[in-house]
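Hey, can you fold this?
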Amino acid sequence: MSKTVAVIERTPLGYGVSFPDFPCAGTSAATVEEVLARAEVTLDAHIDAIMRYGGEMPNHMRSVEEIIADPDHRELIEEVGPVTYALVEVPLPSKSVRVNVTLDQSLLKRIDHKAKSLGESRSGFLAAAARARLSG
């Protein structure tokens, strides 16, 4: 699994975390431990949304040094003050694998009906359900 840089900043209510390689993803919590735990869940949900809605994934995960050298990041530091950097695992999508599962027939019909109403495939629906269960 790859890792991405998480930027942790102190806020009036605790700590916030953002990901320079995933600009729209971020979360907050009362403690550093909580914010790092939430960071992985947030990143997983963000990547799932990128995959589901056709967003763009970064070409590569930058190092802390590359982030620090980024002029946009330097502006952020000037704005918010001192920050801490951490590396967080990134659940990057990989090659699809065909699997054989056994499900109750009526459950499968309900899954197919719901997936169709959402404009998704059965596989996409089941993968999204699995991701939601794993993150929650």
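Oh, and this one too while you're at it.
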Amino acid sequence: MHMLEFGDDFYKQESELEKIIRDYWIHLNPQECTIADNGSVDVSGSVKFIKASSFITELPLTFNKVSGNFDCSRLSLTSLKGSPIEVGGDFDCSFNNLTSLEFVPKKVNGVFIFDNMVHDISTVKSSFARVMLLQLTDDKSSPLLPEVIKYSDHLSILFKYMNYYNAWNTDGSLHPENWNILIEDILNGLE
């Protein structure tokens, strides 16, 4: 019997990045990636996690800049640690198990989407062009404060100015007087 012999190049040596992309079912072209000295990944394009990847509770890579969209929705994320610092398009982290928006991108040019499981928005240090609050169920109860829900149509402006107005106490609770001043200014035309 004659055994076929293959050269060393027959079996492609898979890079660690390509292995993570394959194992976590990430729609991402490895040729569009640049890995920085600190291990973070820049992507010239979009990043999308497959919706069937509900086994993912944390991002498997640390992203820095993504020029396109970043979609990590419908996973089982409990934290946004590893999210890009900058996203050129939309950032979608909806329908996860998030309770906080800590680690959201600092700069997003498009829509920032999250669901009503988030109860702490005091950690947001970013501003977004548009924000959409998605409802998980028909149940109108939400862990978000009623004051936030009431003005959810103004979330992009709230995120933009809430830290300037000191709308949150150091323990993450709402500072009612400062919050009311912020809301009054928004209703009077603050953009």
